[in-house]
Amino acid sequence: MVKGEDGARDWLTKFKANEPRAYDKNGAVLDGVDKAEVAFGLINHYYWYEKVAEAGVDKVKAKIHFLNADDPGALINVAGVGIVKGTDAKDAAVKAIDYLLSSEGQTYFADETFEYPVIAGVTTKADLPTLSELKGSSVDLNRLDSLDATLKLLEEVGLT
């Protein structure tokens, strides 16, 4: 939304001119970069950290790079959790949420899945930049809610 739909169309048109290669999943994108099938790929950071944890940093050729705040790709997403209105299992749902937001739960996500902890005092064994070091994009994620318009634009430029 930084440059509007016309800016997105222009970027997508230029992107298509580079003949991008499509991959089905983040892990496949990372493998493609690691095997030098493509020069770069956009993934969620935790896929790289997971691969490094499994293979060792010296065995992974792909390197991780966090985009600058002025780049619309520097999005910081937070996973959410909620309780379905009218559920018969509200007590169990509250217990599950309490665990997810506990130090134990957040430590699991930080150390085992390389997610950023969302509560104070929980750290990670991964060498992640802190959230305060990352300056997320100025793009308002709440304005990115039109899947139909996005799909139409991708079809218009020939990327579907």
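(ticket continues) Second input and output from the same batch:
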Amino acid sequence: MKKVWLITGCSTGFGRELATYVLSQGNSVAVTARNVDDVKDIIKGYGDKAIALKLDVTKPGDIRDAVRETKFAFGRIDVLVNNAGIGYFGAVEESEDDAVRNMFEINFFGLTKMIQETLPIMRAQKSGHIVNIASIGGLVGFPAVGFYNATKFAVDGLSESLSKETAPLGIKVTIVAPSGFRTDWAGRSANNSPVVIDDYATTAGKNKNDIRGYSGNQPGDPARAAKAIVKAVESENPPLRLLLGAAALKGARAKLDMLAKDFDEWEATTVGADGPKS
């Protein structure tokens, strides 16, 4: 059965590729962006199967309008994809409060408001699927992107809790965790902190330069990622976490090994912290 999709952040990257592919498969899509002119080309030729909507996820009014207009146009919302997001480069000590808070407003609080506005529709339908675009950086921390990691760790934790709340209601949740893909994330979508502390040159500084240096040449293909996301949504038992890219898989497995090492080596201390039973 064809579905109704609402996708945030469709002007570039994953959002654009996903909207284009989902429409090509005969689904109905609300294609959104802060500047609606940036996405009008995506909906050409699809008639009443597609609408382009202005949506800045930091503006509650935009969110309410987008959800309402999607429901009005198509009668339901089957899949919400929270894709809108930005990056930010700087060691934790270098990072500026205003830039960090703005990133949280987009990457986390905007996402949560989208979920809260859409859930009443999905609850009434007794069905739906919420897809939150996180990052391998929501499972593994890296130097130079500590606060970006924090936004995505927050998305991951919220999504896991949400999945347990909504499963009995027929609503599924999938966290998408990509590694390096040829999107604009490491380009104009991520600012640098103007503060540079030399002591972090070999850690945060190096990683920032490495990521900037291969922007546009990452191994990940956004078009293939779009197909992978659709495959997960259409599967009978979709994953809670969908890793995308070989580097994501490698990083996640390394994190599992690191956790197991700490847990095993400190097991006696951990268990010993419990007090004697009365």
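Agent notes: The chain has a mean pLDDT of 94. The first helix runs from residue 13 to 24. Closing as not reproducible unless the customer responds.
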